[in-house]
């Protein structure tokens, strides 16, 4: 293999690693802030109020919250795809070709992980169906 080809490949891979950090940080922070926004939108979780609801209602509310999260995730992912990378074009690097631009595992993780109200609602629902509630 030609030394110039190897050098160019190493430069592109190095830039890609930096770009992955840019993508990951952007996706994670977006998910984090969106989770806080959703929690604030829904208001605080109240365990006593939750206990008074029927199992069907709690299940439907969880399904609605997951549906809402899927919509938020879809919109956020598509908007993040439009953000340019400061590394695009350096040494022939093409940000749009990085697979992680179109996938958003860190966005989904942060969006779901930091939604304390969703977690509390899921735990309450789980306890309704569990043989040994926690």
Description of the structure:
The chain is an all-alpha fold. It has one domain (3-129). Helix content is 75%, strand content 0%. The protein has 6 helices and no strands. Helix 1 (3-42) packs antiparallel against helix 3, helix 1 runs parallel beside helix 5 and helix 3 runs antiparallel to helix 5 (105-113). It is elongated. The protein starts with a helix and ends in a 5-residue tail after the last helix. The model has no long low-confidence stretch (mean pLDDT 91).
Low-confidence stretches: none
Class inferred from helices and paired strands: mainly alpha
Task: Report the strand count.
Answer: 0
For the biggest sheet, the summary is: none
How big is the Rg?
21 Å
Strand content: under 5%
> What gross morphology would you assign?
elongated
Q: What is the mean predicted local confidence, pLDDT?
A: 91
Counted up, domains total 1
């Amino acid at each position: 293999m030609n030394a110039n080809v190897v050098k160019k490949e190493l430069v592109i891979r190095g830039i890609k690693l930096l770009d992955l950090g840019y993508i990951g940080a952007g996706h994670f922070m977006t998910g984090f802030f969106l989770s806080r926004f959703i929690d604030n939108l829904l208001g605080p979780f109240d365990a006593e109020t939750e206990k008074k609801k029927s199992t069907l209602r709690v299940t439907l509310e969880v399904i609605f919250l997951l549906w809402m999260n899927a919509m938020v995730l879809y919109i956020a992912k598509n908007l993040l795809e439009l953000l340019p990378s400061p590394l695009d074009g350096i040494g022939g690097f093409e940000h749009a070709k990085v697979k992680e631009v179109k996938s958003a595992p860190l966005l989904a993780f942060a969006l779901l992980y930091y939604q304390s109200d969703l977690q509390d609602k899921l735990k309450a629902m789980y306890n309704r169906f569990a043989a040994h509630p926690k």
